[in-house]
Specification:
Number of strands: 14
Mean pLDDT: 85
Oligomer: single chain
Helix content: 25-40%
Largest sheet: 6 strands, mixed
Order of helices and strands: HHEEEEEHEHEEEEHHHEHHEEEH
Distance between the termini: 39 Å
Strand content: 15-25%
Low-confidence stretches: 309-319
Length: about 325
């Protein structure tokens, strides 16, 4: 929807079809609205206005398939934080490894960050990311795998570079259902999802990079003029599978990023190393790199030191760990 809204505004100004899409987009966002029970981040002195303020958006990808049997409390399979700077017309997109060992306020101990969503939904994920990075998370967008598959298929596939031959399960957990050879090619929704999820041959960091590349491929395809006629299908794909605490008016404020010149999108990743604690695998974040990323993201949001409240470190060594 972030991709579509700026173009819907432009199209809607000149065509009846565009006006129809614009109204439908408003309905989709309205139906997808879900409050997380807080007016603003506790790391903000005042509530933000995305029309004038630099803001952050946490993207949460979840697997809600019936085979997982999570009863609505699924773990997050992908986490990305976007920080947007209006003056620079720039976005920094940080991929957060799902096994990152962090403090989860919802339960009061350190565990994998992807567990936060299972414990307390989007709000728990938001608070875990805020504690880890010490920056406010203003908005969230939660989307399940069905939406991802449908979006890619609505675009008639996306062009990506597959790094190596791979055999992966599909969204119904059928082993070996997806077989890809290396090289640049057009992937359908199931194939793109398999590429986004695999980490058998490398690491969670490389997995995050692939997810960033896939997002950029979706943006490139969706913003091409040839995809305008597919916007209706795209909104249907997103509609039933997205939740967000953003209103349509707030989402429209992002129009400037798509219409005021070249948008600078920079992808970031968190360094760390594999470790085991009490026999459980975790990704231990590198303290120096994490501190540098905090500074970089605070600068991106133009946060002043006076806006820096006293908070407990998310990497505190004495924090209780889940057994």
């Amino acid at each position: 929807m972030f991709i579509l809204v700026p173009f819907l505004i432009l199209i809607g100004a000149t065509t009846a079809y565009g006006a129809y899409l614009y109204n439908k987009a408003g309905e989709v966002v309205s139906d997808s609205y879900e409050d997380v029970g807080r007016e603003k981040s506790e790391l903000r002195a005042e509530e933000v206005d995305p029309n004038v303020d630099n803001v952050s958006v946490l993207f949460i990808g979840v697997d809600d398939s019936e085979k997982r049997n999570y009863d609505g409390n699924s773990r997050s399979d992908a986490l990305m934080l976007a920080t947007l700077n209006k003056d620079d017309n720039s976005v920094k997109l940080l991929s957060i490894p799902r096994d990152s060992y962090v403090y989860v306020p919802e339960v009061g101990y350190n565990t994998k960050i992807n567990h936060a969503h299972a414990y307390g939904g989007p709000r728990a994920s938001i608070e875990a990311v805020e504690g880890m990075l010490d920056i406010p998370v203003d908005y969230y967008v939660r989307m399940d795998f069905e939406a991802f598959i449908d979006v890619v298929d609505a675009l008639n596939g996306i062009n990506v570079d597959v790094p190596y031959e791979m055999s992966e399960q599909d969204s119904n957990d059928k082993a070996g259902a997806i077989h890809l050879m290396p090289g640049e090619q057009t992937l359908n929704g199931e194939e793109a999802l398999a590429l986004a999820r695999t980490r058998k041959q490398d690491s969670d960091i490389e997995r995050g990079k692939r997810q960033q590349e896939i997002i950029q491929a979706i943006i490139s395809k969706a913003t091409s003029l040839g995809s305008i006629t597919k916007f209706d299908d795209l909104m249907v794909a997103v509609g039933d599978n997205m939740r967000t605490n953003m209103t349509f008016n707030e989402m429209k404020s992002f129009i400037s990023y798509g219409t005021s010149g070249d948008l600078n999108v920079e992808t970031l990743n968190l360094k760390g190393y594999d470790t085991r604690i009490n026999g459980i695998y975790y990704y231990q974040l590198d303290d120096t790199d994490l501190a540098n990323k905090r500074i970089e993201l605070r600068e991106q949001l133009d946060l002043q030191e006076s806006e820096h409240p006293d908070t407990e470190s998310s990497t505190e060594t004495g924090t209780q760990t889940q057994q």
